[in-house]
TrEMBL record:
Pfam families per the UniProt record, alphabetical: NAD_binding_10 (PF13460)
Domain NAD(P)-binding: 13-209
InterPro entries found in the cross-reference section: NAD(P)-bd_dom, NAD(P)-bd_dom_sf, Polyketide_Oxido-like
Protein's UniProt name: NAD(P)-binding domain-containing protein
Organism: Streptomonospora halophila
Amino acid sequence: MGTDRVKRVCIVGASGKLGRYMVQHALERGYEVVGVCRERSVPKLAEFEGRMTVVAGPTNDPDVIRRAVAGCDGVLTVLVPWGVQQHASGTAQAVLDHARPDARLVFSCGWHITRDGGDTYSRAFKAALRIASLLGRLLRYVEIDDQVEACRRVFASDTRWTVVRGSTLEEGESQGLPAWSRHVGDPVLASDRTRRVDFALFMVEALTDDALVQEAPAIVGRLTPSALAHADASRDRA
Ligand SMILES: NC(=O)c1ccc[n+]([C@@H]2O[C@H](COP(=O)([O-])OP(=O)(O)OC[C@H]3O[C@@H](n4cnc5c(N)ncnc54)[C@H](OP(=O)(O)O)[C@@H]3O)[C@@H](O)[C@H]2O)c1
């Protein structure tokens, strides 16, 4: 899809940290922005008042999503596994069901999501994930399996989706568009660090990058040592 074809975008989960960066990037591109967030989080979008439309309500409510995505060329969705209420899968399903069939759909998640099983994870990563899943379930705080289910549904759909898999995140000034690879474990990703503002940048850029349709890029900060070493190696080969 060319940039000129994206005019109106919906950001589902707009009030969170990633969401607000995406709102900023989308407004900078001149897009008309509709944001969805919980009623109590609407004040977190005060800085954008008058520049975006806010639809307040749970992001996994199909009716809320149906109203918010109407007429949107792209939908950016923050998939989060909070609570034990199928929040992530409910949100993904509502977007898949109600977005325009030709809309670009971009979802966020972490490296733990695997599309084709070709990812390789360190023992430390696997152990941390197991502990987080177990504790989250016990405390009824986080439902990581449901984020996995959400992505499974996206991967199985025939929509124009991209699932962006974020590394460990940090705050800080933008370093530019992150580097990416199809598989966690690839050397370019070894630094496992991305600025949140750049995660948002990648999500918004994906709206107009057809090469990312039906891809699940794992991303890493552009100026991290592993991304720089990869860029040097590519230049040497060229
Ligand atoms: N944090 C990391 O280190 C990390 C690493 C890799 C990938 N990621 C991915 O990055 C994305 C953003 O994650 P983030 O950690 O940076 O968080 P974030 O951007 O601050 O977003 C959190 C979102 O979850 C919502 N939320 C929080 N508690 C909730 C609840 N109890 N019920 C329903 N919604 C709730 C927030 O809405 P309100 O504004 O209404 O609270 C907000 O939309 C996610 O897809 C995550 O998987 C994160």
